[in-house]
Design brief:
Structural class: mainly beta
Mean pLDDT: 95
Strand content: over 45%
Distance between the termini: 40 Å
Length: 119
């Protein structure tokens, strides 16, 4: 069973910054894609940012230009730098890893970490 261990998060005022990190015991090079999703109360889980094994990133429209996703294949981490945070960014943030198999993609999730943006 693959474990994704998240750290970071917490409370910040609007306009502030936070960083999240997702660590994997072992190599992450097998994961075709890694990234972050978030879910606010009463809302569906949405994609925030993803990064492929080759470093190609993709961002949700609401976070483009403010959030930056990266992965370090040597340190086995996937990090999310969040800048210019807004109250609407408040949500539980979940690390995601996708492993390609012969029959499709196997998805792995972290336990989630809370991000709260308020004054």
């Amino acid at each position: 069973q693959v474990q994704l261990v998240e750290s970071g998060g917490g409370w910040v005022q609007p306009g502030g910054s936070l960083s999240l990190s997702c660590a994997v015991p072992g190599s992450i090079t097998a994961f075709r894609v890694m990234g972050w999703y978030r879910q606010a109360p009463g809302k569906q889980r949405e994609s925030v940012a993803t990064v492929t094994r080759g470093g190609v990133t993709d961002y949700g429209d609401s976070v483009k230009g403010r959030f930056f996703n990266s992965r370090d294949n040597a340190l086995n981490t996937c990090d999310l730098q969040m800048n210019s945070l807004k109250p609407e960014d408040t949500a539980g943030y979940f690390c995601y890893a996708g492993l390609s198999t012969g029959s499709g993609t196997r998805n792995y999730w972290g336990q989630g970490t809370q991000v709260t943006v308020s004054s």
